[in-house]
Amino acid sequence: MKATFFAAAAAMAGAASAANHRHAHQMFAKRGNAASTGFPVAPTGTGDVCLPGCTTIWKTITGEATLVPVKVTTVTSTSTNTSTVTITPTPTAVSTPVQTTTVIVVPTPEVQRCPTPGTYTFPATTMTVTDTTTVCGATTTKVPSGTHTIGGVTTVVTTLTTVTCPVATVVTSAGVTTSTISMTEYVCPTAGTYTIGAHTTACETETVIVYPTPTTIVPGTYTKPQVVVTATETDYVTVCPYTSSGLPTSTPTPSAVSTPVPAPASSTATPAPSSAAPSSAAPSSSAPATPGNSKTEVKGTNDLFAITYGPYDSSSGNCKTGDQVKKDIAEIKKAGFQAVRIYGTDCDTLVNVVPACVDQGLQVIAGIFVKPEDECSITSPQVKKQVDDLISMNNWDAIRLLVVSNESILNKVCSAEQLAKLIKDVKTHCSGFQGPVTIAETLNIWQQKEVSDAICPLVDVVGANIHAIFNPNVDASGAGDFVKQQMDILGEICGKNVINLETGWKNEGSCNGIACPGPEDQKKAISSIRKTCGDASVFFSFDNESWKPAPDQNWGLGGVFNFSV
C-alpha cells in the first residue's frame, strides 16, 4: 500500500549542550602576588639606615660598692619604601542562566515503513515512564482518493457546552513538519457529536495517511514486543505499539473536558467560531455495542482443537452430498479434533455439515463470508442470505464461535468502519446467538490502529489467520514458536484472548526461503504447532483443493492425520 505521511511523529526537544566549557585552570597559576591582596609586589629598594651609637665609660670609685645607673639613649630608625601599583578593574561577571529542555522518552507508537515486499523484523524495546505525559501519538488510516477530515478529539454533548481538550496540531517550519500538543477550548453550540481539532487532507489515489493524535502516557513499564511483518506491497506502513506492565494494556486517549454553559438570557444561541473545522451531527439513536468479555476463551482440551472444512469436491469444487459430508466429519472426529470451522452457508453447509458435527459431538465455528464482489453490509444480498440461513437453522447451541468475514480488510473488501458496522448488524439480527463473536484477519491488519480501535470493542476474542510458511526465515520445525509468538502479540492489541483461525503448512510447492513445502515438512510443522498452541488453533485444511488458485491448493492434512478421503 502506498503511504503518505500527513504529519510526522512528535518532535523531541534537544538537551542543552555543554560543549566548549572551560575549566579555568589558569586562575591557579603562580604569579608572585602578595598573599593578602593578590596584587603584584614591587621590588624592595636598598636605602641608608642610621644605627644607634654606643659609648663605654670607665671610672674607678673607691669605697663601699654602690650601683651607679647608666643613662641609655634610644635611637629610632624609620625606613620608607614607595611603590606604584596600577589596578585594572575587572567587570563583574553576570551569570546568564542556560535554558535547558528535558527530553522525556515516552512509548509512543512507532510508525515503520516497509519500502519493498518482504519480511521485516522490528526488535523489542522496553522503557519506564515515571510521570504522566500527554504527547503526540501516531495513527494511520487508509483512505480512497478525495478530500478527507481526520484526527481530532470526538465528544458528545447534550446542551450548549464549552469543551477543553488537548489537540494535536501540525506545524511546518523550513520544510520540516512536526506535531505539537495544545489545549483547545471550543464552544459546542447545541447538542450533538463534535470532532475538535481535526485535519483536512486531499489525496489523488488510495493512500495510507499517518497523522498525530493526543495520547496520554501514564507511569509504568512499557514494552514493544518484537514484531515480524510480512509486507506484500510496496511502501507498506505498520505501527508498532507499546503495551504497559501492571497498567491497562491500551494507552488511553485524552478525553475532552466538558463544561456545561448556562443558557444565555437572550434567545440567541452562542455561534460556533467561523473557522470551526469540527462538524456536528445529532447523536446516533443506536446504542453502542457492549464490549466483549476479555476473559472469554475459545479453545479445546487437547492439542487438536479444530480444523477447517468446506463441503466441496477436492477436484471440481462441486458441492458434496450429505453422505460424503458425514463420512468426512467422522474422519475428523476419529483424528481427535473437537471442532470444525466453516466459512459460509453455501453448498447446504448448515443442512449437511452442522448436523453431521452434532452427531459426532463436534462444535462448529460458523462464518459469514463477504465475497470481493459483495458490498460489506448486512444489506448485501449474499451477506443477508447467510445471516437469514443462520437464523432459519435455529441451532445456536451447535455454534461455538461466530466469525464475521474472513480477511475482508486484508483483501480490501471492507474498511474497518464498514466491518465494525457489519458486526453490530449481525449481532442485532442473530440475537438468538449468545456466544462469542470475532473476525478473521492477519496480524498486520490487527496492528493498524483504525482496525483495533474499531473492532476490539466489538469482538469477544481476537481472531487471526497465522501461517508460518509465509515467513522465509521460519522452517517447518520452527512453525510452532512462530505462531505462538504472533498470538502473543495479538493478545496485547485488544487485551483479549486469541483464537488462531487458520494455521497449516503446504504439502507441495516451491520453497519460500527456508520454509519448504512437502509431506515430511508438513508433518514437522503441524507437530510443532500442536506443541505450542494446538489447543487454540484451527488447522488448515481437511483436504487439498485443486479447484482453487495454485497458492491455495495443497494444504490438505490427509497425510498427517490419515484421513480416508
TrEMBL record:
Residues 245-298 are annotated as: Disordered. It comes from the Eukaryota. Its main location: secreted. Residues 245-291 have a biased composition (Low complexity). One of its GO terms (cellular component) is extracellular region. InterPro entries: Beta-glucan_modifiers, GH. Keywords: Cell wall, Glycosidase, Hydrolase, Secreted, Signal. Residues 1-18 form the signal peptide. The keyword Signal applies. GO terms for biological process: cell wall organization. It is found in: Secreted, Cell wall. The keyword Secreted applies. Belongs to the glycosyl hydrolase 17 family. This is Probable beta-glucosidase btgE. It comes from Akanthomyces lecanii RCEF 1005.
